[in-house]
Amino acid sequence: EMRSQTGETFWVLLSSRIIEFGGDNVIYSVTSNITRMKLAEDALRLSEQKLRDLLEIAPSAIFIIGVDDGRVLFHNRLARVLSGVEEGSLIGLRAPDFFADPLDRALLIEAIQRDGPVKERELRIRTAPGETHWFHVSATLVEYEGQTAMFCAMLDIDERRQTEKQLELARSETESANRELRMVNMELEQLASTDRLTNAFNRRHFEEVALREMSRARRYSLPLTLIMIDLDHFKSINDDFGHAAGDHVLVELTQLVRTHLRSSDVLARWGGEEFVILATSTALEEVTMLAEKLRDLFEHHEFADLRPLTFSAGVTSLSFRDTLDTFIRRADKALYKAKAEGRNRVVSLGAEALA
């Protein structure tokens, strides 16, 4: 460091030697002004110190790790806390020991070399008490102190993962509870809409469906037909064979009828030994033929320990002026006519035969 005549300070590179000149020994010096280079070095040192100061207070654990030997070249305060070293230095320690799976370090370097900087890769890292936590690890390759190194920033996400795991478990339990609740509701709805003995729809549900189908039939000018069935001499079955036998007959009648209906048709137990069938988009003639087929099948159906049984049926189609009550009363009128004419028969009444 030298000072000029004007008082300014500057830096020179000085080389000197003693030589003989004119019979005397003199000092021969060569100087080179290196002030700019010196200022640049000072600025670089200041910049590096500022960077170190910033990394020291960073909210993540920071490591700079040699790629070749895996030794720690730099770390900040949180890195020391992570490693359980409140005082002292981690410089020179082996970084692979920090990874729960040492292979993770090699795979991390390989990913950086192949794809460039890695952001927030979830890895398991050993913490101070010897526990293993999940961390977000972001890393890139840098030149540090003359060698290739990996710059790593690690953020502990173990608590967040635990919270996410608990939320996922709670969500799974909630979904499971909701599924069970839906199943219970479906069972309750089924119980509320079906007859307990025969598992056919009950009267209340049939009326709800019939009102909707009547509205749809009128809106789109579609036919809608109703069959009303009543077992012949059913009281004698209960009297002669008991109510259990009578219940068995009702169940078998339901099963027999259901196997010959479409999915769009609606079968319901109207009450006692009476049943109703609502046939959508089907003309009176076709439904009358269906009723006759069912009557014949039932007549020839074999019941264990019982005599042959029959039923009577009334069939009618929807009129534009019908209410649900008049629609049903007309089917009942046709059924009464079948009974009066000797039972075991089907009688149909057109929409013009208003009840």
What does this structure look like?
The protein has 355 residues and is of the alpha+beta class. It has 9 helices and 14 strands. The chain has a 5-stranded antiparallel beta sheet, sandwiched between helices. The chain has a 5-stranded mixed beta sheet with strand order 11-12-10-13-14, sandwiched between helices. A two-stranded antiparallel ribbon has the order 1-2.
Q: Indicate the overall shape.
A: rod-shaped
Q: What oligomerization state is this entry in? A: single chain
Query: What is the topology, as strand order, of the major beta sheet?
Result: 6-5-9-8-7
- Number of helical segments with 4 or more residues: 9
Work out the number of β strands: 14
* Low-pLDDT stretches: none
What integer is the average pLDDT? 83
Any idea what the radius of gyration is?
Answer: 48 Å
How much helicity do the residues have?
A: 40-55%
Largest sheet: 5 strands, antiparallel
| SSE succession | EEEEHEEHHEEEHHEHHEEHEHE
- Percent of residues in beta strands: 25-35%
Give the terminus-to-terminus CA distance.
Answer: 125 Å
Decide which structural class fits the backbone. alpha+beta
Q: Which SSEs are present, and which pair or pack?
A:
Blueprint: E1 2-3, E2 9-10, E3 12-21, E4 24-33, H1 35-56, E5 61-66, E6 72-75, H2 77-83, H3 103-115, E7 118-126, E8 132-144, E9 147-156, H4 158-193, H5 203-220, E10 224-231, H6 234-241, H7 243-258, E11 266-271, E12 274-280, H8 284-299, E13 311-317, H9 324-340, E14 346-349
Parallel strand pairs: 13-14
Antiparallel strand pairs: 1-2, 3-4, 5-6, 5-9, 7-8, 8-9, 10-12, 10-13, 11-12
Helix pairs in contact: 6-7
